[in-house]
Amino acid sequence: MVLRQIRPDILVIEPKFEDVKSTVLDSEDWTDGADYVIDTTASMAVIEKLESRRGKSTRRVPVASMVVGHRAQQGLVVVSGSRHSGGPVDVLRNVKIAACSKSCLGDYVDEFWPAEPRNDVFQPEPGCSEATFVGSAADSIALAATMLNLAAVDFQETEKEADTEDSATAHFVAQPHTALPGIPLYYKFNFQSDVVIEDPQSNFQIRISQAALSEMHTWVRRSALIYGEKAETGGILFGGRDNACRVIWVSEVIGPPSDSESSCEHFICGTNGVAEANEEKRQRTRGSTQYIGMWHTHPTSLPAPSETDFLAMHALVNADEPSTHKHLLLILGSDSEQSVELLSGFLFSKKDFGDLEKFGVLERKIQVSALGPLTPQGIIVDQAGRRFMVLSDMHFGTPESSINFAQFRDPLIDYMVSRAPWDEIVFTGDLIDINLSTFTRAIEGGTWQDLNGPLFGFRQFVQELDIRMRRQSPEKGLKHLTQKWIYVPGNHDYKIWDMLSSKLVCDDVLASGEKMGSVSTPVMTGKWIGEESFFAGIFRTYCAQNQVIVEYPNHEINFRQEKMVLTHGHYLDAKQTRFNDLSDYLSNFKSPEEIRKARRRIFIETAQYQTVANTISFTMGFRGLANVLVGPDAFGNKIKKLYHQVGSSLLILLFPREARKGKRLSSKQLRNMGCYLEQFCQYKKLPRWFIFGHTHHQGKEKSNLGVDVYNAGSCYSDRDIPITFLEIETNAQGMPIIQLMCIDRNGNVKRTDYS
User: Fold this and answer.
1) Is the pLDDT of residue 643 over 60?
2) pTM for this one?
3) C-alpha to C-alpha distances, 616 to 166, 397, 435, 626, nearest whole angstrom
4) Region at 241 (left for phi over 0; alpha for psi -120 to 50; beta for the rest)
5) Mean pLDDT taken over the chain
6) In order of start, what are the domains of the chain with their CATH numbers?
7) How far apart are the first and last CA of the chain?
8) For 711, phi and psi rounded to 5 degrees?
9) Rounded to whole angstroms, how far apart are CA atoms 290 and 689?
């Protein structure tokens, strides 16, 4: 009776000797009137029964569970607060997944969740000749005392503040004499509660992690921006299931596989990449996270399964792959007024479809849970804190680009990683320079005989981002850096748009057996999502290909009821449109038909000019000549020499486009921007913000139409600043705060100051 010796005057000990599974845990009050529960049984049967009873009971008290390693060198204590969504089994599962992602905790993972079990039973059984536990009493007492102290502190902390997000904890502890380099003697995790819903048919509790729900909302937001708010979307669920506890966990989700179909009428989930994603998650978490089902949305209706949903689940439970006995279906929907977000979950097995197979009828109990109010943009819970990065005119493949120099490139990459996750990273044109370089040089980089220094290719850039992400957190990589990679080609990479649009009107038409001309030309706008574009292949190594979107000529972002338009900006430059100055040319036409024909002509002649410009990439001599004369280096050293020799006026006459590089936008160019939006793009309501690149001159202007105009900058030196870019972050009202950023000569990342 060691406990009684602590305070013999007031401490009352009531020992009971009974099977807790059939007595206390089978009674109405599973706590037996206690204020705190500490489990030290090391029995899975007990802890699973406790988890199940706690999950169904309205009475909640803090619960701690302690485990000692088989040599009494390491211990693990988990504490589930009274407000936490799960009990000890839940927290143990969470800490296993979290620990598997920390390389420094490998010894703890091997001790408590060995890849190959040491023995089916942890403690010695009666009559067993060889004990599985070999720790000393002193070691066991030391660990037990340490863990009891930690649990006592957590009992107070988790109950003290009702508004704290963390409601469960886990502690790894180790004996001092076991210390090894790189392995901590103590490590703590904090966990938030899951979103919990019930499936009354299967009597399973469905626990959805906050991260998984947030990821679903992100994919819903993405779908609304691309396909419209009424289009359905969905994806794949990954987690775990405990039949004894009657719990299924949704830990991670992915969006629609690349072969999915989305429309306002239905969502058909594809399978591309699902097997690879499942294997990655299973290996990373030692089997705790793997495929468990699918999710999708009903944007304008209740989250009740449709006939299509039932048939899809029927096919899944009878299929060989993915191999799971039960398949979970989550549906996000809304009420009749589309003001409240609703969620429901359904766990299906083969026996659920017995009536369907016998009588052609299937009945299903439904329990709908309200998650919160919907915003006007659809199922978007939180508009604050969205973050976007805009990079323009990086000119991979040209030696003048600052991206080739590590002292400027590394701070940019580090900053991108430090600010992750981004909602979007947007490249507004001239990302890879195919006019003054080649695909191979721009994408692969490397050393070339005709260049003084090595080129840093775009593939290396992507690889380095992945390396830095994993260095920061081993379980993360490139696909966790941003939700979407947006690529809007400009003039130096116009070939990207040309190849994709040509495939659309020629390759795809012929391959489908249709007649040429079945797609109207010229194709003036386009969007390719995921592996629809060959460019996404660069990201496939990192399982991020489905995040890539290539579109032309604009990308749009909605902030509440306001629109932001991002483009490269070459249509504002008369030289790039074969001397068709937008404001002058389009002002000659008034009727819709005249304007339609004028738009068509500008688009075609711009394409013709870019095609001619691109031909120089086929010979090294032409590329070199063009780079010396009108290369996109903001009149670098070679041009400056020529400038002083022949005078600025002659240069402006010879090269009007390049003479504007590094200059502020003129009132004429701002008028061109207005014509571009109103007449060329035909926006009925002008966007509030317009972001572009092309001029290599970062800055902010106000157009005569009231549009806030920003130039994102470039990777060419501008006013002695090697790299300039733009960052956007939303405030509490969901509106964008736009900041001009730069990498200075000392490699510092800072806000740009042009005062």
Assistant:
1) no
2) 0.54
3) 60, 14, 6, 8
4) beta
5) 83
6) 33-116+137-189 (no CATH), 195-373 (3.40.140.10), 387-751 (3.60.21.10)
7) 76
8) -105, 125
9) 43
